[in-house]
Amino acid sequence: DQDQFKKVLSHAKEYGYVFQSSEIYDGLQAVYDYGQNGAELKKNIREYWWQAMTQLNQDIVGIDAAIFMHPTTWKASGHVDAFNDPLIDNKDSKKRYRADVLIEDYCEKHLQKANKEIEKAANRFGDDFDAKLYSETNPRVVGYLKKSKEPVERLAKLLQAEDLAGVKALIEELEIADPDTGSKNWTDVRQFNLMFGTKIGASADTATDLYLRPETAQGIFVNFLNVQKSGRMKIPFGIAQTGKAFRNEIVARQFIFRQREFEQMEMQYFVKPGTELEWFEVWKEKRMAWHSSLGLGADNYRFHDHEKLAHYANAATDIEFNFPFGFKELEGIHSRTDFDLKAHEEYSGKKLKFFDHEENKNYVPYVIETSIGLDRMFLAVFSTALVDETLEDGSERTVLKIPAVLAPVKAAILPLLKKDGLPEIAEEIINDLKWSMKVQYDEKDAIGRRYRRQDANGTPFCVTIDHDTKEDQAVTVRDRDTMTQERIAIKDLKTYLEKRVAMSEWLRRI
Ligand code: ATP
Question: What positions does the entry give for substrate binding (predicted)?
């Protein structure tokens, strides 16, 4: 909901997770910087994905292709001709909108109206209320629900048919107004390419037009044979990659969910033609197992199968996540056939075939791709982790329950007092732990306040050194989520913490 979303934004800033880019110059729309904690969280998510792909699967290797690619790449991939959003301007306000988003928002608004009516009726009728029956029979609710569905269905058909005049007509028919000014004076709808252009080369005459890559996948396709040959890979095998991608998004909202510069984690799995739908199912399951291992809650995920497929795909699904603004795409899993490799063969004139010794023949493999936005995964983790709790004694705490494997700081080392040799013991503990995990020293304020600060920071363990430590050579370890405390011998501390935070331990849960 809106309140939770606002909390996420302010907490992310206050605790050094996400800042607006170039904030002192009032920021840059849809571009964000990650702070000291955000950079760690992002790195840990990336690593958790990378190791799950390239370490747990013997048949998957990773590459790191350049952001700049030969411009023909984007002709072959279809991005030059078809990577567009339909735009519309309001003639009075001169504001620019995505035509499809205006229509989607119209539907969303009517869905909310329907829900409000149902909620009101539920309150009125009490226990006997049948929400399903009510939404099917109450004329007002039926009307709202129709308006929440029909327009997007018509929109999908119009876009499929590239009927931009039809999209404009639909906006006029629905009497959609400029959300800022209420004006209904619209221009025609036109296609707008999302790729950022730039130039390579020093002199004006010889400079070549380039694009910043809008997805990392093409770097994998063009390297398919390099990797296959140099790595002696046999089909089926996969290539994984993480890296920046750039899209000139027009609707810049929803925080780091939709950015102009973002990071993708993609894996292309090359299979024998005819086996792709089996592998598609395998990868759906494997990717969901990866998500489940982090424990963000099964209810927060759902598959959304595509009914309408892109021309190159023969199966596609999204893993949607319950973000503070509702279920939205977190990851895509697509069966892309041989579309990309064939297109690159055609445009480059080079063969991109695999010789299958068992079959004794050449073929262009089919591809299953899994593609997840690192920033969206960050938002999924962060927004689910942030909770306000009322404790037994009636006090409140804000806690960031980030899975320990992903947490920026694994343990805070806290001497109860700044004297009596306690800081020195803390330093010894840090010097032992720092080789295997990121820890943080904190000696300021009363211990209760330090615990709260670490809760809000997302640190899963607090290690407190007190006066007994000198006697029993042990410390108190406090668990962020349960707030239970355990006495652990200093000599066992590293093993105890590693068991709970180490990536190697968490990867076993997949
Ligand atoms: P959407 O429909 O939300 O624009 P998409 O279908 O265009 O997404 P893909 O092209 O399939 O997305 O890209 C794969 C993944 O990359 C997405 O599932 C998402 O996690 C991420 N992604 C795409 N665009 C952005 C963006 N502008 N900002 C952040 N992440 C993005």
Answer: 98, 215, 262-266, 369-373
